[in-house]
């Protein structure tokens, strides 16, 4: 079989920036935990496992050593890709139509890339198959676990209690299911919503003063096996992530790039978007996960 021929397109700066922005709109992690620049190499993050404490020293008294300890946390590098096939008639479109087609592909592909970040870090799930991803460890597997009750407000208190003795809580990621439940809660005396600022979409809001974002990625809606996750609360600054490769778009005109048949034979053309992520969760115990009670 002939080798796959590709034609690489470098996205203009404004389009590449659009991809990053839209990826942020589809990921609660990207909303609650800002990305940091990352190089394509092995990276180890350091976590204080024991922080030093100050000592009061009397006049003329000797000073003691303050003990400190670090725990190394290796970063993980993972590539996410989206390949979209279309009729090759798109090549015949005029310039305006071509831009519209590429914009649509960028929009859909970047949304998928954003979802992949949450699926990988929260659940260690490959979103295209809904099954476990190789070489990943789910944040939810090591986080503090809280079982949901019929009292959503009490569940929120339980989440906070599971984390705030050791870490500063700076965010909560909500499943759409739990966000809907919380919005139903009203003050009995006035009928006003108890949590009026809770977000129902990917725009950042707040829940009881905590920065909040809502997405179907939190519950892992694409997972073949239900995760039962309703919410994830904690210090989202413990999630270190970044994009280590510039975003680009490959236009593939011949060959079989995805196992679905020869493009020329099927009169098709393929557009492929790829991004390489690096991430590390410094301490999963800095998070608490609310899960449905087992049936």
TrEMBL record:
Major localization class: virion
One Pfam family from the record: Phage_capsid
Record localization: Virion
Domain Phage capsid-like C-terminal: 9-291
Recorded superkingdom: Bacteria
SUPFAM superfamilies per record: Major capsid protein gp5
Transmembrane portions of the chain: none
InterPro entries attached to this UniProt entry: Phage_capsid, Phage_capsid-like_C
Protein name: Phage major capsid protein
Phylogenetic placement of the source organism: Bacteria, Bacillati, Actinomycetota, Coriobacteriia, Coriobacteriales
């Amino acid at each position: 079989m002939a080798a796959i021929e590709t034609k690489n397109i470098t996205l203009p700066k404004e389009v590449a920036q659009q991809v990053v922005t839209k990826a942020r709109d589809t990921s609660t992690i990207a909303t609650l935990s800002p990305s940091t620049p990352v190089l394509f190499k092995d990276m180890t993050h350091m976590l204080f496992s024991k922080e030093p404490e100050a000592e009061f020293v009397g006049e003329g008294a000797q000073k003691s050593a303050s003990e400190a300890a670090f725990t190394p946390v290796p970063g993980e590098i993972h590539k996410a890709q989206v390949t979209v096939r279309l009729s090759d008639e798109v090549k015949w479109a005029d310039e305006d139509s071509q831009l519209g087609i590429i914009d649509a592909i960028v929009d859909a592909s970047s949304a998928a890339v954003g979802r992949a970040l949450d699926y990988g870090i929260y659940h260690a799930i490959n979103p295209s198959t809904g099954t476990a991803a190789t070489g990943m460890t789910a944040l939810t597997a090591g986080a503090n676990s809280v079982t949901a009750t019929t009292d959503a407000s009490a569940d929120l208190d339980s989440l906070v209690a599971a984390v705030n003795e050791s870490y500063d809580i700076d965010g909560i990621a909500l499943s759409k299911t739990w966000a809907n439940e919380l919005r139903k809660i009203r003050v009995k005396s006035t009928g006003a919503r108890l949590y009026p600022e809770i977000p129902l979409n990917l725009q950042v809001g707040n829940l009881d003063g905590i920065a909040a974002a809502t997405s179907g990625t939190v519950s892992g809606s694409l997972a073949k096996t239900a995760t039962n996750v309703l919410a994830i609360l904690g210090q989202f600054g413990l999630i270190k992530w970044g994009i280590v490769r510039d975003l680009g778009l490959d236009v593939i005109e011949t060959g079989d790039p995805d196992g679905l048949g020869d493009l020329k034979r099927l009169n098709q053309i393929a557009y492929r978007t790829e991004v390489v992520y690096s991430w590390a969760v410094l301490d999963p115990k800095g998070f608490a996960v609310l899960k449905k009670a087992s049936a």
